[in-house]
Amino acid sequence: MSETLRLLIADDHPMFRAALRYALGEIAPGASIVEVSSQSALEAAIASGEEFDLAMLDLMMPGAMGFSSLVYARGERPELPVVIISSNEHPRTIRRAQQFGAAAFVPKSAPTTMLGEAVKAVLAGDIWFPPQKAERDEHDAQLADKLALLTPQQLRVLMRLADGLLNKQIAYELSLAENTVKIHVTAILRKLGCHSRTQAAVLVKGLSLEDEGADLHGSTTQ
């Protein structure tokens, strides 16, 4: 692999990031690695304009709601392949990750050889997912299609709206004028086919992992 590879790791557990960095050093020697530990830090890294060849995302970072980090990354940088690294190995989680645009899914319990297979496949332009039996979910497909209509800024506004923030709070967090936030909210509701902020928030809850049947209280480290 090229020594100029730039990789982005997004995980809130320092020990797991260190383990992943070590593993990637074996897989892609000489690669440059940027680490972030929250949704806001991920947004800043992606918005910085820095070029990355691959992003590796945990699903349970602070500020993220299930697949929101994946949806945001794909919306902001559709050319950037995203590998999900998660302790939630439920077949439906794996299927949903694929439907929301991930290029690969690697369980945190997987050996380094499996991680290497996934990374090499994705960098070669392929996808990589472990065998799983969950079927395609039409509700998830429709949600993914709706979210794809939003601009990256609208996605940022939507995620904060789903957290229950008021327009002035969203404006403060995103350094926007309150009127700009109002305009974004109006556009978001129209694109999502929602009649209220509450309805949009409920729609976003479809990104959560709460019905996957796995331990959602934190990720495990290897």
TrEMBL record:
Residues 143-208 form the HTH luxR-type domain. Signal peptide: none annotated. The keyword Phosphoprotein applies. The modification 4-aspartylphosphate is found at D58. CDD domains: LuxR_C_like, REC_NarL-like. Pfam families: GerE, Response_reg. SMART domains: HTH_LUXR (SM00421), REC (SM00448). Keywords: DNA-binding, Phosphoprotein. Residues 6-123 form the Response regulatory domain. InterPro entries: CheY-like_superfamily, EvgA-like, NreC/VraR/RcsB-like_REC, Sig_transdc_resp-reg_C-effctor, Sig_transdc_resp-reg_receiver, Tscrpt_reg_LuxR_C. Gene3D superfamilies: 3.40.50.2300. SUPFAM superfamilies: C-terminal effector domain of the bipartite response regulators, CheY-like. GO terms for molecular function: DNA binding. The keyword Methyltransferase does not apply. GO terms for biological process: phosphorelay signal transduction system; regulation of DNA-templated transcription. This is Bacterial regulatory, luxR family protein. It comes from Lysobacter antibioticus. The lineage of its organism: Bacteria, Pseudomonadati, Pseudomonadota, Gammaproteobacteria, Lysobacterales.
